[in-house]
Amino acid sequence: MDIRSVTLFCEAGAADAPLAHFLQAARHAFPYPVQSTRMATPPFPDWWPQPDATTVAHLAQQTAARGQALGVDYISLGPVLLRHDPVWLNALPVIFATSDTLFATAEIADTSGNLDTGRCWHVADIIRRVSTVSPNGFGNLYLAALANCPPGSPFFPVAYHQGGAPTFAIAVESADLALDAIQAAKTLPEARANLVAAIEEEAGKVVNTAVSLAQEYNIPFHGIDFSLAPYPTDSKSLGGAMEALGLPH
Length: 249
Known about the structure:
The protein is 40% helix and 18% strand. It has two domains: 135 residues, TIM Barrel; 73 residues, no CATH class. It is of the alpha/beta class.
């Protein structure tokens, strides 16, 4: 198992030095490799002044430079929410064309059950436009359409901060736990029991370290996202885990 991200949630104007010290410590504190440290802000339309292309490009460059100075690998600027003017959606292709360390998203359905079909069409067009931002077509790696996604998830692109004091959460890459659990089992109930036990054991180790960091740096720990998060190798493949269950396809 690896830690894919230690994600710090904070206001855009939070003091840099304490955050940098925390992020540096977090890279080396856990009993697993930490692949990246990341920062997630409140939704960018709430703290950027206007969505014209020149302003957006300037602020994107400025934000990316700040992240580099802090020692974060990636920054999520949060979503264009349903309550925001849809003109902000046009900022997304500009952001991704400006930097390859910035993520951002667009909400199509909120956590109260409201779905905006017009926004769905608009976001679909933005996704099409973003697909051509880079020659390799990877622009949409940095974008997602959000439905019923509250703040606080450590995985990107969905991550964003609800505002207020900094917090942090952990995203893990743990498909190998599922593969090992299934390969060691003779029945489905045994595979399930193995996986539950493995997750609980590894989560306990992560929590112990995270709680210590939270106490030392006065930044509350808000949990682990234990989505199995595969990686394209045989040892970390969810497909391999499914095959180990005996599924042919």
